[in-house]
Amino acid sequence: xxxxxxxxxxxxxxxxxxxxxxxxxxxxxxxxxxxxxxxxxxxxxxxxxxxxxxxxxxxxxxxxxxxxxxxxxxxxxxxxxxxxxxxxxxxxxxxxxxxxxxxxxxxxxxxxxxxxxxxxxxxxxxxxxxxxxxxxxxxxxxxxxxxxxxxxxxxxxxxxxxxxxxxxxxxxxxxxxxxxxxxxxxxx
Length: 188
Prior knowledge:
The chain is mostly helical. The chain has helices at 24-27, 47-68, 77-105, 113-147, 156-187. The longest helix has 35 residues, at 113-147. It is elongated, with a radius of gyration of 24 Å. The two termini are 37 Å apart.
């Protein structure tokens, strides 16, 4: 008799049904389609993913334009950092919006592990930079407006608007990052 392990025999033969799309006939899907991770809206290559990227780009671009429209933003390092970080966010979001649009037009899935890894790392870097820049700019804006009471000489409304747009852009990057990370982590 050897010490090899033997497969376990179950006394009951249990059939586990596959998870089906509820109301599959109503959605236009064949009745035997199963729910897969790639069907989640907001991920790369989906319409919601494209919408997230376009809005990320839009709010980041507005923040850069509003901040750059002030004459004294270069005198504050946090404001220069905001413009630099959000310019990077604009380039990143616009690039991925083009990739999403291409994937939608040719009906390709962007579920490749390498692609998702690239998107996840890029979203993590740009969202961290955007959040740090927005926080730094918010701190300086509060310092100028509330602590120094110096809004008469500065462009506090523009600084606040640009900072708010930066926070909204960061908020819109978060779902993109988490969905890509979730998809990447669920593959392992």
